[in-house]
């Protein structure tokens, strides 16, 4: 019983993390049809920037609540800067090229950004320990849960709800939906697709950085964190269906729970259970669990 | 590929083999690894013609490498040809089996499924103690027809072996491209339904291409494992696959020769970058890839192709 409860809580926390990382990726793919390998770098930059900035903030002895606000602000700033530079400077030049070529462009950007980390923050790793200390722990039915984890799950849930609502109810969300369904028609109706693209990419970058910032207190912020995260995020959004925010939510839950179950029951398969699930979903339903099927191209 | 270019290609391989003893050791060992990897890239060129880009070709690369490594670890077989044959057969078999799945998919789904499969192997390798876990393990030197060359000769003989494998593969693949099945890859990319109406099973065609590419990748992995005398799970990680796709784009994926020139160029670039910017050589690689895609859409090969007559409807 306790194991089942532990699987559930661990799975939820891991799912929250996966959702934060995956949602930006799926947003960018949904709107722009770009599978963005550089998303792993957004995550890493968010984590580094938050670890440094929030660490300094807490060391200055300022109130804790501001620290969490700062975490979000730092992530947004990182996403804004990186997103604008990459979309305006690089991606804009390859729109209309083969999908795979664009993936390779983001791969090149990823390589550059990965090494730029060493130039900006040096080869040392950073540990952001204060937020976990501030939020403390909660005892739930014999399991000691970290308050930060609970907050993370709540935050991811809120973000999922807000994202889903914003896409369906707000003016901007509806414009975005139009562009997702038919870019040319949207342009013909006077929607400025170019601005939508930039805004989407920047928003996706912010979400990626936010994922990194939110995870910074739970991991050792070190070189190579972006490399691991990118394939995980791929798995999540492919399972849910590329380009679907609801899909990313379900995909994160599926992957999170599967991994937690593997960790507790069969630790040997922990590393590949995620990709096994991904392969299984692709075999049974290649478009993912939630995306609509594309008509076959003639 | 016209017969003339096959002859030129074979002469180039012979020339490389002839000048190898006069070249510095670092260049020979660099070229050995480069040409071993070029076999994987050759497989990617085959798939590229059919419009497929696998992000998980490292799966077969690692299968080839690990089969050689396991043979030297658990059996007395040291003959290089037997080891290569085993690696080719095993990776071809894995390619055949995964092909039943992969041949049904196109575009990004194909890429992602192949990525998932390679990451499964990575997970298995990392978690299996008997396969060396994350550290991998050492690969013993093979014998060549009973002889076990030592010192500088060892490297040279291996280089010649790699060249022999490469020239044979290049020849066979060139012939394959000129065959009916090979020529059908391009129409399959352009319009699958049209081809199906003409009575061709595109899935079977792609399955065949997948097996060829997997076998080539397996031989490449086996040769690379012998060359570096070590295998580890990173050989199946997605960054390895990404590197192969990188070379394919860099070279231009236009021809058989592009695979070899591109791979050699890539290894050279990597070692220059490593020399100039030891800690941050990936910046250099990324910049080169970016500039190639932006300003040379046809790859580096397109620089040399311009004056040739245009290829018929490709």
Largest sheet of chain B: 2 strands, antiparallel
Please list the strands of the largest sheet of chain B in the order they lie side by side: 1-2
Quantity of strands of chain B, as a count: 2
Largest interface: A-B, 47 and 41 residues
Low-confidence spans of chain A: pLDDT under 50, at least 5 residues?
A: none
Secondary-structure element order of chain A, N to C = HHHHEHEEHHHHEHHH
Low-confidence stretches of chain B: 307-311
Helix content of chain B: over 70%
Quaternary organisation of the protein chains: heterodimer
Residue-averaged pLDDT of chain B, rounded?
A: 81
Secondary-structure element pattern of chain B, one letter each: HHHHHEHHHHHEHHHH
Counting DSSP H or I runs of 4 or more residues, the number of helices of chain A is 12
CATH class of chain B: Mainly Alpha
Structure summarized in a few sentences:
The complex is a heterodimer of chains A (about 300) and B (about 325). Chain A is mainly alpha-helical and about 300 residues long.
How would you describe this structure to a colleague?
The complex is a heterodimer of chains A (298) and B (314). With 298 residues, chain A is mainly α. Chain A has a domain of 199 residues. In chain A, 74% of the residues lie in helices and 4% in strands. Chain A contains 12 helices and 4 strands; from the N terminus they run ααααβαββααααβααα. Chain A has a two-stranded antiparallel ribbon with strand order 1-4. In chain A, strands 2-3 form a two-stranded antiparallel sheet. Chain A is globular. Chain B is an all-alpha fold and 314 residues long. Chain B has a single domain, classed as ABC transporter involved in vitamin B12 uptake, BtuC. Chain B has a two-stranded antiparallel ribbon. In chain B, helix 1 packs antiparallel against helix 6, helix 2 crosses helix 11 and helix 6 packs antiparallel against helix 10. The longest helix of chain B is centred in the middle third of the chain and has 28 residues. The two termini of chain B are 13 Å apart. Chains A and B meet through helix 4, helix 10 and helix 12 of A and helix 5, helix 11 and helix 13 of B.
């Amino acid at each position: 019983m306790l194991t089942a409860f532990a699987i559930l809580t661990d799975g939820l926390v891991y799912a929250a993390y996966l959702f934060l990382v995956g949602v930006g990726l799926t947003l960018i793919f949904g709107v722009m049809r770009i599978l963005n390998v550089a998303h792993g770098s957004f995550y890493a930059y968010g984590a580094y920037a938050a670890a440094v900035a929030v660490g300094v903030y807490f060391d200055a002895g300022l109130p804790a609540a501001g620290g969490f606000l700062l975490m979000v602000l730092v992530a947004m700033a990182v996403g804004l800067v990186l997103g604008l530079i990459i979309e305006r400077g690089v991606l804009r030049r390859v729109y209309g090229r083969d999908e795979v070529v664009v993936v390779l462009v983001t791969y090149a950007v990823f390589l550059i950004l990965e090494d730029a980390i060493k130039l900006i923050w040096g080869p040392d790793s950073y540990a952001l320990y204060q937020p976990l200390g501030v939020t403390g722990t909660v005892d739930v039915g014999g399991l000691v849960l970290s308050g930060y984890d609970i907050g993370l799950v709540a935050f991811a849930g809120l973000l999922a709800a807000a994202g889903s609502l914003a896409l369906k109810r707000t003016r901007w969300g509806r414009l975005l939906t139009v562009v997702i369904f038919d870019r040319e028609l949207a342009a013909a109706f006077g929607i400025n697709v170019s601005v939508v693209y930039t805004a989407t990419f920047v928003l996706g970058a912010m979400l990626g950085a936010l994922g990194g910032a939110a995870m910074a207190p739970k991991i050792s912020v070190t070189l190579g964190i972006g490399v691991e995260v990118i394939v995980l995020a791929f798995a999540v959004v492919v399972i849910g269906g590329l380009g679907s925010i609801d899909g990313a939510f379900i995909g994160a839950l599926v992957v999170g729970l599967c991994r937690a179950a593997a960790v507790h029951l069969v630790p040997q398969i922990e590393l590949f259970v995620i990709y096994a699930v991904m392969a299984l979903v692709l075999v049974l339903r290649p478009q993912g669990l939630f995306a609509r099927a594309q008509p076959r191209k003639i | 590929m016209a017969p003339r270019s096959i002859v030129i290609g074979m002469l180039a391989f012979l020339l490389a083999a002839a000048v190898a003893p006069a070249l510095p050791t670092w260049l020979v060992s660099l070229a050995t690894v480069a040409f071993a990897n070029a076999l994987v890239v050759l497989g990617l060129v085959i798939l590229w013609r059919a419009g497929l880009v696998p992000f998980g070709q490292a799966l077969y690369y690692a299968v080839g490498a690990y089969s050689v490594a396991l043979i030297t670890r658990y059996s007395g077989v040291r003959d290089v040809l037997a080891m290569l044959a085993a690696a080719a057969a095993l990776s071809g078999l894995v390619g055949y089996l995964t092909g039943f799945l992969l041949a049904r998919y196109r575009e990004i789904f194909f890429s992602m499924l192949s990525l998932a499969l390679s990451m499964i192997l990575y997970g298995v390798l990392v978690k299996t103690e008997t396969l060396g876990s994350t550290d991998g393990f050492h690969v013993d030197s093979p014998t060549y027809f009973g002889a076990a060359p030592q010192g500088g000769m060892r490297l040279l003989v291996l280089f010649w072996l790699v060249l022999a494998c490469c020239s044979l593969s290049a020849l066979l693949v060139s012939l394959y491209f000129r065959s009916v099945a090979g020529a059908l890859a391009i129409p399959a990319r352009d319009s699958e339904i049209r081809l199906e109406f003409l009575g061709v099973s595109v899935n079977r065609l792609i399955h065949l291409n997948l097996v060829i590419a997997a076998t080539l990748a397996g031989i490449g992995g086996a040769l690379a494992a012998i060359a570096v005398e070590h295998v580890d799970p990173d050989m199946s990680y997605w960054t390895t696959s990404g590197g192969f796709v990188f070379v394919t784009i860099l070279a231009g994926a236009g021809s058989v020769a592009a695979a070899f020139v591109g791979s050699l160029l890539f290894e050279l670039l990597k070692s220059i970058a490593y020399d100039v910017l030891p800690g941050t050589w990936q910046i250099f690689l990324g910049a080169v890839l970016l500039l190639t895609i932006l300003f040379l859409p046809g790859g580096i090969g397109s620089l040399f192709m311009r004056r040739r007559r245009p290829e018929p409807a490709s």
